[in-house]
């Protein structure tokens, strides 16, 4: 077996180094010779239909030619003759004698050929070489070409080279090599072949033809078009060379062993050195591979997730992204590179989960934005995934579809005004009836669900005990901020705090439903006074009697064929029931006492039940009375004939005695949906489960389960299913039952504006459970480990500001401030909510660029004016307001400076107290303005957005537009430096180097103005006063060297303008000399000549000065110096 190929069967001959046949190959001349493969090419085998390939050529089958990397470059027709796969840079191709290979190798005509590594043979026609490799072909019909161009033995010849002297053979080989080199690329003469292997190897390297860069580029492009990567192929070749034992090229050192060195110690030392170097090289290669693998695994593994976060942060969507399959489409597109499929191994990203809190690159910039991307008011794509799943519509969050944007904008304006007043009241520690105010706005909105929304607001007011008339919190006149936080967020359902909260919800819901019914009673009586016949005593009992008479007259008191028990012309059971329905249980007891004689005749025991019911704080009967009442109810229900019992009597027993709790319906009565809702809440009780009978157990949790089931069956689940605004009723039921988080999440899909403001009111009183802002950023409604619902309150507010923050940044600050309502939570939760608020405000500041309004402004004396953020420091949990404001200001300043907004950066750094950075930025802007050529348009800056809100800014007290209208860097520098020079509080915090540099640049700006005004002498005097250029050296080399030594101590902003200063000086010298030489009234001739000589000496000194500086001046400056010195 040879070194690079399997020995063919039946052969015992070996191969020489370059494919020359060995003597053993010529032993039998009667048989066709079949030499084994050489190092750089393998001859074809005639006896077998499939031959071995060359170094990288694939074997072919008898019927189909194996494709090569360049098989698409020539059109070939498969033949029945056996084919031998070509090498990587040459392929044999039958039947087309004139076709040339990739690098000039012609294709054979009849016989299969074996291409060498860089050449293949041709037949009958000597074709010129291809892309500069310079490989010529010979006229041997069936030979193969080795690397040196020596033709190998024909597989069909019956004779081979003689075994004796082969000098003639090598001579012909050498002559052909010289001929090849002289025809295509002249090389130096080849030496004799009596050399060592090392010398032969070095000479072989020099024999290779040189290719031009253009040809190499062309080859690389063709390779790339064929699907082959040249860099990968070279890398594979190198790895193959090392793997098979090839020698690695290394620089020849002084310790390299030469063949003539016979010293054993030197040989061993040389061997040890080479071994050490090889180990070092292998270690470096291994380290390089490990480092590449590390980068592959750690740096690029999160790129797809990071890019997706960046897209989400800036609101970028690809054109193929849809609402239904946006996520999957994005992943499919991102997995493919720009020019084809990525070769990188797909790795599972650690941060693809929506709940990841941080990434390898941090959370501050690459996480999803807290406030969302800006968008137009009205319809926009929801940011929460669960809301997207609910809507399933292209017009997702648009409130009611028929509402025009103008009405929605007006509604948002009224609501934002209430929120602004709300925050001001919080700053002043004054009560503000937020639920009442928001209910008024909702009542005038004209929405289809407005009535249910107003009822929900009033129900919440009743639950929390909000009093719109209260002017102080003293004496529990009204509910306080975050009053119910501890009770509502208590993790123990059986604790006293949780029990009290559930009782409050039930009592509040009952009280609201009963009060609303009594208001309806009064409204109906006022609408139909004749039928009601109220009379002259408008007390509660009289109104209920009138209401019963009115309904009886309208024949809707009970269904037809239903008997009512009547006494003294009154339906007594109906009157008692509606007194209970209106919550007037005391009046019901008084009515029974007044009609005691009548009730003794019709029902002796009900009076005792009702009196016990009224006296109980929980509206419960004692166990003995409870059992007796239930027995009487059950007996009448089973024994009495149909339609023989007054249905109002049975309803009164059900309400007072909580009879048949499992059947919570009013039988044989004309009732509304509100009556059924009231019965559910009236029968529910929150008591100790251990002491309560199982059959009578019906609490708030059971009520919530019933409402949830009703919602799934009878109410729309998405805006596409709603036609008449019935979702408002289900939202109202959820608020009544205390399902606040589910109610807000449900309403958000239908009307996000109303949902957000209702959530603000609930959060103010502590009736919402906020979620972790970082782990549940993509979901509006989530659940904790105890399966308690929680709402993403902070991000909901942040996304809401997209509608208006570009036009009304003050309102956006008011809404984002409310995120800190949850900052009073204990432990890490409160800190996260405060952090979320601060991040949202920081993003708002950077996005809006309303720095003077949000962070503050500067008065003419340099003192600051507080901004909106600092004014609300007490609301956003800033114990030391300077820390947060300074942090936000510095971050905004760096952001503005990086984006080239000089005036913004100057204002922000000044507000942050970093006066040295102010001077540095001003100096940089001034340096850029000075560097412009004389006559060019002056540089202008982007001014700061003013603080005015559409009013006259001059009429506003404490307002300053000192930086708002400045767009000239020179004026900006003069304003800031004059301000700083007047107050020691400023200039003591500025480094002397920056302050001096700024002053020098201001003087250089004046010099430029003088040069533009052609005031040459004044400009030269000011340049001399700078003491930067040797204008007073008068040819003294020592003084010139002194000035040159001072150049290295100049500030960078000053040093980059020294060439301009030199050019201005040369211009002044030339122009002033010309003026003196051509002036008619120049005065004393000697003085004029002396002045001209002085100006020329200045030019010569400047030439010497520039030659001593290690600074590369522009060529035109040297030309100007040369002309000035020569004149």
Distance, first to last CA: 86 Å
Major sheet details: 2 strands, antiparallel
Number of E strands: 6
**Which structural class fits the helix and strand makeup?**
mainly alpha
Q: What does this protein structure show overall?
A:
There is one protein chain. The chain is mainly alpha-helical. It is 49% helix and 1% strand. It is built from 43 helices and 6 strands. It has a two-stranded antiparallel ribbon with strand order 1-2. Strand 1 (336-337) and strand 2 (340-341) form a beta hairpin. Helix 11 runs parallel beside helix 24 (727-736), helix 16 runs antiparallel to helix 17 (585-594) and helix 39 crosses helix 42. The longest helix is centred in the first third of the chain and has 36 residues, at 264-299. The two termini are 86 Å apart. The model is unreliable at 1-164, 184-188, 244-261, 322-366, 393-403 and 949-959 (pLDDT under 50).
Write the layout of secondary structure elements.
Elements: H1 167-184, H2 197-207, H3 213-225, H4 230-243, H5 264-299, H6 303-314, H7 326-334, E1 336-337, E2 340-341, H8 385-391, H9 405-427, H10 434-443, H11 450-464, H12 485-488, H13 496-527, H14 529-532, H15 540-553, H16 572-581, H17 585-594, H18 596-602, H19 606-615, H20 623-639, H21 647-657, H22 673-683, H23 700-714, H24 727-736, H25 740-748, H26 752-764, E3 781-783, E4 789-791, H27 793-800, H28 809-817, H29 828-848, H30 851-854, E5 856-858, E6 864-866, H31 868-871, H32 881-898, H33 902-911, H34 915-930, H35 969-982, H36 984-987, H37 992-1012, H38 1016-1026, H39 1037-1047, H40 1052-1055, H41 1058-1078, H42 1085-1107, H43 1115-1126
Antiparallel strand pairs: 1-2, 3-4, 5-6
């Amino acid at each position: 077996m040879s070194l690079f190929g399997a020995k063919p069967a039946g052969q015992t001959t070996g191969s020489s180094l370059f494919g020359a046949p060995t003597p053993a190959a010529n032993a039998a001349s009667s048989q066709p010779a079949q030499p084994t493969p050489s190092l750089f090419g393998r001859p074809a085998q005639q006896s077998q239909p499939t031959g071995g390939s060359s170094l990288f050529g694939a074997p072919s089958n008898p019927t189909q030619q194996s494709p090569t990397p360049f098989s698409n470059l020539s059109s070939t027709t498969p033949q029945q003759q056996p084919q031998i796969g070509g090498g990587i840079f040459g392929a044999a191709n039958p039947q087309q004698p004139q076709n040339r290979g990739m690098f000039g190798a012609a294709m054979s005509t009849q016989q299969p050929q074996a291409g060498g590594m860089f050449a293949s043979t041709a037949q009958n026609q000597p074709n010129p070489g291809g892309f500069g490799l310079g490989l010529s072909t010979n006229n041997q019909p069936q030979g193969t070409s080795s690397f040196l161009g020596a033709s190998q033995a024909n597989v069909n010849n019956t004779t081979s080279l003689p075994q004796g002297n082969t000098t003639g053979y090598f001579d012909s080989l050498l002559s052909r090599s010289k001929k090849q080199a002289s025809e295509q690329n002249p090389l130096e003469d080849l030496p004799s072949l009596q050399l060592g292997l090392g010398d032969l190897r070095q000479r072989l390297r020099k024999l290779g033809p040189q290719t031009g860069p253009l040809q190499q580029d062309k080859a690389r492009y063709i390779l790339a078009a064929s699907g082959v990567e040249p860099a990968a192929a070279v890398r594979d070749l190198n790895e193959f060379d090392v793997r098979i034992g090839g020698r690695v090229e290394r620089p020849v050192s002084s310790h390299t062993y030469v063949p003539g060195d016979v010293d054993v110690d030197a040989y061993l030392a040389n061997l040890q050195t080479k071994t050490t170097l090889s180990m070092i090289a292998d270690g470096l290669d291994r380290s390089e591979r490990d480092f590449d693998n590390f980068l592959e695994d750690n740096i690029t593994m999160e790129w797809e997730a990071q890019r997706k976060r960046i897209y989400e942060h800036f609101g970028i969507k690809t054109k193929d992204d849809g609402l239904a399959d946006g996520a999957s489409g994005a992943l499919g597109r991102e997995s493919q590179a720009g020019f084809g499929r990525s070769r990188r191994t797909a790795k599972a990203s650690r941060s693809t989960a929506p709940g990841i809190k941080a990434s390898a690159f941090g959370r501050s910039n690459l996480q999803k934005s807290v406030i969302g991307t800006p968008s137009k008011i009205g319809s926009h794509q929801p940011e929460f995934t669960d809301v997207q799943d609910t809507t399933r519509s292209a017009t997702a969050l648009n409130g009611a579809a028929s509402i025009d944007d103008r009405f929605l904008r007006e509604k948002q304006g009224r609501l934002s005004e209430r929120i602004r007043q709300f925050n001001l009241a919080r700053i002043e520690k004054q009560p503000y009836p937020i639920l009442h105010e928001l209910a008024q706005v909702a009542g005038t909105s004209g929405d289809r669900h407005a009535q249910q929304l107003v009822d929900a607001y009033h129900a919440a007011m009743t639950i929390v005990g909000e009093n719109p008339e209260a002017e102080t919190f003293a004496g529990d006149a009204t509910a306080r901020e975050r009053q119910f936080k501890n009770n509502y967020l208590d993790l123990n359902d059986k604790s006293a705090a949780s029990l009290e909260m559930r009782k409050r919800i039930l009592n509040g819901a009952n009280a609201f439903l009963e009060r609303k019914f009594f208001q309806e009673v009064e409204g109906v009586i006022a609408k139909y006074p004749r039928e009601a016949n109220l009379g002259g005593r408008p007390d509660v009992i009289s109104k209920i009697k009138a209401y019963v008479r009115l309904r009886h007259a309208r024949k809707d008191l009970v269904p037809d064929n239903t008997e009512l028990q009547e006494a003294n012309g009154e339906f007594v059971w109906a009157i008692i029931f509606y007194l209970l329905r209106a919550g007037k249980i005391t009046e019901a007891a008084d009515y029974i006492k007044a009609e005691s004689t009548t009730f003794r005749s019709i029902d002796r025991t009900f009076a005792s039940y009702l009196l016990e019911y009224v006296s109980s704080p929980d509206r419960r009967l004692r166990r003995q009375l409870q059992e007796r009442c239930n027995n009487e109810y059950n007996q009448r229900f089973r024994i009495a004939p149909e339609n023989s019992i007054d249905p109002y009597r049975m309803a009164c027993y059900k309400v007072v005695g909580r009879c048949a709790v499992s059947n919570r319906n009013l039988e044989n009565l004309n009732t509304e949906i509100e009556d059924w809702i009231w019965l559910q809440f009236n029968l529910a009780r929150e008591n100790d489960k251990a002491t309560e009978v199982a059959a009578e157990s019906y609490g708030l949790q059971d009520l919530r389960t019933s409402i949830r089931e009703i919602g799934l069956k009878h109410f729309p689940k998405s805006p596409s299913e709603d036609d008449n605004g019935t979702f408002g009723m289900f939202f109202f039921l959820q608020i009544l039952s205390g399902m606040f988080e589910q109610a807000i999440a449900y309403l958000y899909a239908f009307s996000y504006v109303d949902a957000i403001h209702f959530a603000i009111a609930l959060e103010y009183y502590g009736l919402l459970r906020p979620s972790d802002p970082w782990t549940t950023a993509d979901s509006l409604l989530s659940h904790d480990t105890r399966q308690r619902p929680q709402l993403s309150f902070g991000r909901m507010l942040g996304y809401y500001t997209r509608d208006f923050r570009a036009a009304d940044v003050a309102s956006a600050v008011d809404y984002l401030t409310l995120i800190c309502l949850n900052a009073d939570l204990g432990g890490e939760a409160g800190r996260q909510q405060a952090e979320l608020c601060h991040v949202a405000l920081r993003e708002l500041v950077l996005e809006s660029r309303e720095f003077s309004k949000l962070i503050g402004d500067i008065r003419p004396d340099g003192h600051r004016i507080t901004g909106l953020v600092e004014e609300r420091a007490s609301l956003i949990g800033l114990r030391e307001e300077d820390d947060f404001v300074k942090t936000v200001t510095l971050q905004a300043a760096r952001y503005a400076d990086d984006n080239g907004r000089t005036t913004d950066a100057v204002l922000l750094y000044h507000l942050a107290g970093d006066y040295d950075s102010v001077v540095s930025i001003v100096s940089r802007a001034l340096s850029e303005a000075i560097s412009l050529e004389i006559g060019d348009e002056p540089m202008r800056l982007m001014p700061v957005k003013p603080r005015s809100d559409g009013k006259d800014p001059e009429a506003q007290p404490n307002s300053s537009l000192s930086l708002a209208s400045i767009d000239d860097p020179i004026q900006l520098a003069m304003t800031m430096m004059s301000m700083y020079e007047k107050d020691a509080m400023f200039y003591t915090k500025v480094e002397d180097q920056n302050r001096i540099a700024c002053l020098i640049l201001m003087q250089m700006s004046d010099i430029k103005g003088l040069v533009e005004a052609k005031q040459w002498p004044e400009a030269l005097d000011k340049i001399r006063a700078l003491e930067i250029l040797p204008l007073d050296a008068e040819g003294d080399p020592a003084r010139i060297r002194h000035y040159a030594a001072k150049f290295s101590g100049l500030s960078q902003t000053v040093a980059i303008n020294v060439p301009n200063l030199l050019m201005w000086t040369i211009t002044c010298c030339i122009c002033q000399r010309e003026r003196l030489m051509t002036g008619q009234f120049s005065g004393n001739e000697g003085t004029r000549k002396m002045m001209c000589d002085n100006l020329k000496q200045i030019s010569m000194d400047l030439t010497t000065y520039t030659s001593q500086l290690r600074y590369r001046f522009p060529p035109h400056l040297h030309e100007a110096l040369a002309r000035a010195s020569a004149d």
